[in-house]
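Continuing the series of single-chain predictions for the mutant panel. This is the parent chain; the variants come on the following pages.
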Amino acid sequence: MYRLQGLFFEACTVNWWWIEEIKVLEDHVHFMIQIQPTDCIADVVNTLKGGSSRVLRKEFPELEEFLWGDSFWSDGYFAETVGAASYAQIKTYIKENKESMPQANQKPRPSGRE
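Parent structure:
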Protein backbone atom coordinates (compact mmCIF):
# COMPACT_ATOMS: atom_id res chain seq x y z
CA MET A 1 0.00 0.00 0.00
CA TYR A 2 2.81 2.39 0.85
CA ARG A 3 4.50 1.76 -2.48
CA LEU A 4 1.27 2.47 -4.35
CA GLN A 5 0.72 5.67 -2.41
CA GLY A 6 4.32 6.72 -3.16
CA LEU A 7 3.80 6.11 -6.88
CA PHE A 8 0.70 8.31 -6.86
CA PHE A 9 2.57 11.11 -5.08
CA GLU A 10 5.44 10.86 -7.60
CA ALA A 11 3.05 11.04 -10.57
CA CYS A 12 1.25 14.02 -9.05
CA THR A 13 4.48 15.88 -8.35
CA VAL A 14 5.70 15.43 -11.93
CA ASN A 15 2.37 16.60 -13.36
CA TRP A 16 1.80 19.54 -10.98
CA TRP A 17 -1.20 17.89 -9.34
CA TRP A 18 -1.78 18.04 -5.60
CA ILE A 19 -3.12 15.19 -3.45
CA GLU A 20 -5.33 16.68 -0.76
CA GLU A 21 -6.27 13.32 0.73
CA ILE A 22 -5.70 9.68 -0.20
CA LYS A 23 -6.81 6.37 1.26
CA VAL A 24 -5.59 3.09 -0.22
CA LEU A 25 -8.01 0.30 0.65
CA GLU A 26 -7.81 -3.39 -0.11
CA ASP A 27 -9.87 -3.19 -3.30
CA HIS A 28 -9.85 0.47 -4.35
CA VAL A 29 -8.38 3.91 -3.73
CA HIS A 30 -10.05 7.15 -2.65
CA PHE A 31 -8.42 10.38 -3.79
CA MET A 32 -9.04 14.04 -3.33
CA ILE A 33 -6.76 15.59 -5.89
CA GLN A 34 -6.32 19.04 -7.38
CA ILE A 35 -5.42 19.04 -11.06
CA GLN A 36 -4.64 21.80 -13.50
CA PRO A 37 -7.68 23.35 -15.24
CA THR A 38 -6.22 22.29 -18.58
CA ASP A 39 -5.94 18.61 -17.58
CA CYS A 40 -8.61 16.14 -18.63
CA ILE A 41 -9.83 13.99 -15.73
CA ALA A 42 -9.80 10.84 -17.87
CA ASP A 43 -6.14 11.49 -18.76
CA VAL A 44 -5.25 12.03 -15.10
CA VAL A 45 -6.90 8.74 -14.11
CA ASN A 46 -5.22 6.95 -17.01
CA THR A 47 -1.82 8.32 -15.97
CA LEU A 48 -2.29 7.29 -12.33
CA LYS A 49 -3.70 3.85 -13.05
CA GLY A 50 -1.49 3.02 -16.03
CA GLY A 51 1.75 4.22 -14.51
CA SER A 52 1.20 2.53 -11.17
CA SER A 53 0.17 -0.70 -12.88
CA ARG A 54 3.36 -0.84 -14.95
CA VAL A 55 5.64 -0.21 -11.98
CA LEU A 56 3.84 -2.59 -9.59
CA ARG A 57 3.75 -5.42 -12.15
CA LYS A 58 7.47 -5.04 -12.70
CA GLU A 59 8.37 -4.82 -9.00
CA PHE A 60 5.89 -7.47 -7.81
CA PRO A 61 5.44 -10.10 -10.56
CA GLU A 62 3.67 -12.39 -8.08
CA LEU A 63 0.64 -10.05 -8.31
CA GLU A 64 -0.18 -11.47 -11.75
CA GLU A 65 -2.22 -14.29 -10.21
CA PHE A 66 -4.58 -11.76 -8.57
CA LEU A 67 -5.35 -9.67 -11.67
CA TRP A 68 -8.69 -9.31 -13.45
CA GLY A 69 -7.67 -10.80 -16.78
CA ASP A 70 -4.78 -8.70 -18.04
CA SER A 71 -5.66 -5.61 -16.01
CA PHE A 72 -4.25 -4.52 -12.68
CA TRP A 73 -7.02 -1.93 -12.24
CA SER A 74 -10.69 -2.24 -13.17
CA ASP A 75 -11.87 -0.09 -16.07
CA GLY A 76 -14.03 2.31 -14.12
CA TYR A 77 -13.56 5.31 -11.89
CA PHE A 78 -15.69 7.94 -10.22
CA ALA A 79 -14.84 11.63 -10.35
CA GLU A 80 -16.66 14.59 -8.89
CA THR A 81 -15.84 18.26 -8.63
CA VAL A 82 -15.82 19.63 -5.10
CA GLY A 83 -16.91 23.09 -4.05
CA ALA A 84 -16.03 24.95 -0.89
CA ALA A 85 -19.14 23.68 0.91
CA SER A 86 -18.41 19.98 0.34
CA TYR A 87 -14.58 20.13 0.50
CA ALA A 88 -14.30 19.36 4.23
CA GLN A 89 -16.98 16.66 4.08
CA ILE A 90 -15.26 14.79 1.25
CA LYS A 91 -11.85 15.10 2.88
CA THR A 92 -13.24 13.75 6.17
CA TYR A 93 -15.00 10.88 4.40
CA ILE A 94 -11.77 9.78 2.69
CA LYS A 95 -9.73 10.11 5.87
CA GLU A 96 -12.19 8.18 8.03
CA ASN A 97 -13.31 5.50 5.56
CA LYS A 98 -12.04 2.15 6.78
CA GLU A 99 -14.12 -0.27 4.76
CA SER A 100 -14.44 -0.78 1.04
CA MET A 101 -18.17 -1.39 1.34
CA PRO A 102 -20.67 -0.80 4.17
CA GLN A 103 -21.06 -3.82 6.43
CA ALA A 104 -24.39 -5.65 6.56
CA ASN A 105 -25.11 -4.37 10.09
CA GLN A 106 -24.52 -0.73 9.16
CA LYS A 107 -27.48 1.44 8.27
CA PRO A 108 -27.22 3.25 4.93
CA ARG A 109 -26.55 6.96 5.21
CA PRO A 110 -29.52 9.15 4.32
CA SER A 111 -29.13 10.73 0.92
CA GLY A 112 -31.08 13.85 1.78
CA ARG A 113 -33.25 13.33 -1.30
CA GLU A 114 -36.31 11.81 0.38
